[in-house]
Amino acid sequence: MLISVTVIVALVAVAIIVVIVNRPEPVALPEGVGAARTLSENAHYPEEAGEDAPTLVEFLDFECEACGAFYPYMEDIREQYDGQINYVVRYFPLQGHFNSMNAALAVEAAAQQGEFEGMYRMMFETQAEWGEGQTSEAERFRGYADTLGLDLAAYDQAVANPATQERVEEDFNAGLALDVSGTPTFFLDGEQLELTAPEDLPNALDAALSQ
């Protein structure tokens, strides 16, 4: 749904301030992390316009307040540039958020049943109800899977499967290799964006499209 320019500017301005103020120091790379890459063969593409289109990658944490503030802004960006850009989401669950990994596991388990975007949207649209808690929200997220009509037995199996967490950690480690230290962090065609104003992202996309 398209939201007003005034609301978008206010939301993203607040989110940018939160990101700048709260971004932690870079984390040392763990052993075994490969070369820095913004994309992977199993990356999730909520928007796909083809290999020749500019590719915007967002590393995010579903419990991150700034990511939640960016969410309606990104929905507007997706509508504004529909069919013109690739938009890729990669997991970067921060250790300081109690349910960030639970949320990422739930989204990845849903993705295995073709509902990545349904669970992605549900996480951000309900973040205010569960974010910043100190108890597991795994059952709540299972309820979201039920609401989306997923096969719950398959969902439970996916959440419990170590391979699902490994998939999440693959994105996280790729982010570390790219010097990602907080969320949201954006890359456009492999180059990290430094967003300091609401117009920075559309300006960067317009420049990429004009090339």
From TrEMBL:
Keywords: Disulfide bond, Oxidoreductase, Redox-active center, Signal
Thioredoxin domain segment(s): 19-210
Lineage of the organism: Bacteria, Bacillati, Actinomycetota, Actinomycetes, Propionibacteriales
Organism: Propioniciclava soli
InterPro entries: Thioredoxin-like_fold, Thioredoxin-like_sf, Thioredoxin_domain
Residues spanning the membrane: none
Source organism, top-level taxon: Bacteria
SUPFAM superfamilies per UniProt: Thioredoxin-like (SSF52833)
Similarity annotation: Belongs to the thioredoxin family. DsbA subfamily.
Pfam families, per the entry: Thioredoxin_4 (PF13462)
Annotated protein name in UniProt: Thioredoxin domain-containing protein
